[in-house]
Each structure stands twice: as structure tokens, then as C-alpha cells.
Design brief:
Keywords: Cytoplasm, Repeat, TPR repeat. This is Sperm associated antigen 1a. The structure is a single chain. By secondary structure, this protein is an all-alpha fold. The protein folds into two domains: 174 residues, Alpha Horseshoe (Serine Threonine Protein Phosphatase 5, Tetratricopeptide repeat); 124 residues, Tetratricopeptide repeat domain (Serine Threonine Protein Phosphatase 5, Tetratricopeptide repeat), CATH 1.25.40.10. The chain contains 16 helices and no strands. The longest helix is centred in the middle third of the chain and has 23 residues. The chain is globular and about 65 Å long.
Length: 311
């Protein structure tokens, strides 16, 4: 089937996912994309790798918003196996690599993006920033330590330049115009995204090193740029839990749940905060919510047994 000719039930799931994503409901959007992906192999007459690539790339965007960089990389890689020069999949994987401080791999993906479309400012900014980091890390021979940068065929570059707006992009533009909003200046928007990615990566690194107070500051700076980013609140909750500041951890989870009412991490971390505050009934309630959303979360099962014994 040609791209865009999905069977109605899969097209509906994809469209629902797109709508939820645009409204910041990343967990719910991810669930719709997952169902569409699962329905793909058994759907008669579907042989378009492009459609499946888009679904994986869209789910990767949800993982990126949720702060699940490893899952984002996995989905982008699947998308790129289907469409080796998918610009969005390359860009999202690059951002995920950068957030995990895998700078060499991020550099390669950003450079590949720029071969396809030299106008992606976020990729230019990131290459500039990562180059400085790699020079500091690896010295003058930093380029020799890079993985091989693939050469994008000229035909792919030309095809991208001639590619018309997708239905989704056209719909998004129409929606913005109808709402009377102007497009943000792409340069400013992408700089903000890149700055937030860097701050978040620095925060994640500080958490790994046990520097929770400093990590809080990084996540806080990121929130001034992206106050609707749910993962930042759940990350701050981890820091407060580690610092035994349980009331503040609970408040961060409350904020996350106002943005995403079904956020599993927020429920789990709020349960730990309730436990720290010796509110075992509320802890039990939140852990049950976690298990209702995902029955396979072993840590939640173990914590539920513990707090049930304390009731």
C-alpha cells in the first residue's frame, strides 16, 4: 500500500496519537502508536515501510518528551532500518544520544541530518556545541575517534528538497493559522530546544553522580524554557526523594500528573513520597494506579507489599 493508505483502524490510531501528542499527552500518544505498530504485521495488504517508519519515529518523539532516551534510540533505529534517511528519526536519535552524553554518535547523526537538509538550525547548533565538547574530551585527534559518517546519496537530498508538505505538517500549519497564532521563529524555537536538551543532559549526569541538589538547579533552568515538559517534574521528584524532601517530591509529582494524568513514573514516585511521609494509604493507592497502568512493574508490586504491611 502506498504511504498514507493505512487501513482505517490503523490510520485512526495514528491520528489519535498525533492529536494527543500535540496536546502534550505523550504517554497516551505512545499507547496509540504502539497499538498501530502491533497491528501492522497482520494488516492485510500493507507493505509500505514508510508508514511503519513514521509510527516508530512518532513513538520515539514520545519517548524523547518523556525523557526515555534509550527507548527513543531503539525506536529511531527501527525507523531508520525501514527508511535509512528519515530526517526526523535521525534528528530525534541524535538528541537522545546527546542527552545520554554519547556525543560521537550524536555528532554523526546530526551531520547526516545536515547532508539531507542543511537548513536544520538545531543540528547546526548541536554540531557546534558537540565539536567543542569532543575537542576537550579527545584532543586534536577527536575526528579520528568518530564512527563513520554515512554519505547521503544525492538522489535522497534532491528528493527531500522536492518533497511536498505532509498531510500532518499541513494540518498543523492550518491549525496554528486558524488559532491566529504566528509560527515561532524557527531559530529561536530550535535554540531553546537545544538548550533544554543540554540542561537536561547535565541534570541527568549530576543525578548519576549523586549530585541531586545541583541536578535540581539544572532541571529548574530547563523548566523555565519548557514548563510543560512532564519528565522534568518527575526527574526533580527523584532528586527530592534522594534528599529525603518528601513533601517537595510529592508536589513535583502532582504537577506532572496535572500535565499527564496517566504518567506511571509520577504515580510511582509520588507513592514513594507518600511512604516517606508515612501516608501509607495514599502510597498504596498510587501504587495500585501504577499496576493498573502496567501490571509488569515489579518494583511497584514489591513496594505495594511493603506499604500494605505498614497499614
Amino acid at each position: 500500500a502506498p504511504a498514507g493508505a493505512l487501513p482505517p483502524h490503523l490510520a485512526r490510531l495514528k491520528n489519535e496519537g498525533n492529536h494527543l501528542f500535540r496536546h502534550g499527552q505523550f504517554g497516551d500518544a505512545m499507547e496509540r502508536y504502539s497499538r498501530a505498530i502491533e497491528g501492522f504485521p497482520g494488516a492485510a495488504g500493507i507493505d509500505s515501510p514508510e508508514d511503519l517508519c513514521i509510527l516508530y519515529s512518532n513513538r520515539a518523539a514520545c519517548h524523547l518528551k518523556e525523557g526515555s532516551s534509550a527507548d527513543c534510540i531503539q525506536d529511531c533505529t527501527k525507523a531508520l532500518e525501514l527508511q535509512p534517511y528519515s530526517l526526523k528519526a535521525l534528528l530525534r536519535r541524535a538528541m537522545a544520544y546527546e542527552s545520554l552524553e554519547r556525543y560521537r554518535k550524536a555528532y554523526v547523526d546530526y551531520k547526516t541530518v545536515l547532508q539531507i537538509d542543511g537548513g536544520v538550525q538545531a543540528a547546526h547548533d548541536s554540531v557546534h556545541r558537540i565539536t567543542k565538547m569532543l575537542m576537550e574530551q579527545d584532543g586534536p585527534g577527536w575526528r579520528e575517534k568518530l564512527p563513520e559518517i554515512p554519505t547521503v546519496p544525492l538522489a535522497v537530498q534532491q528528493q527531500h528538497r522536492q518533497k511536498p508538505l505532509s498531510a500532518e505538517e499541513a494540518e498543523a500549519r492550518a491549525a496554528r493559522a486558524a488559532a491566529g497564532r504566528r509560527w515561532p521563529t524557527p531559530f529561536i524555537s530550535r535554540r531553546k530546544e537545544a538548550r533544554c536538551t543540554l540542561l537536561k543532559a547535565e541534570g541527568n549526569d549530576l543525578v548519576r553522580r549523586g549530585c541531586f541538589q545541583e541536578a535540581l538547579q539544572k532541571y529548574g533552568q530547563c523548566l523555565t524554557l519548557k514548563p510543560q515538559e512532564c519528565a522534568l517534574y518527575t526527574n526533580r521528584a527523584v532528586c527530592f526523594l534522594k534528599l529525603n524532601r518528601f513533601e517537595e517530591a510529592k508536589q513535583e509529582c502532582d504537577r506532572a500528573l496535572r500535565l499527564e494524568p496517566n504518567n506511571r513514573k509520577a504515580f510511582y514516585r509520588r507513592a514513594l513520597a507518600h511512604k516517606g511521609l508515612q501516608d501509607y494509604l495514599s502510597a498504596s493507592s498510587d501504587l495500585q494506579e501504577v499496576l493498573q497502568l502496567d501490571p509488569n512493574v515489579r518494583e511497584a508490586e514489591q513496594e505495594l507489599e511493603t506499604v500494605t504491611g505498614l497499614l
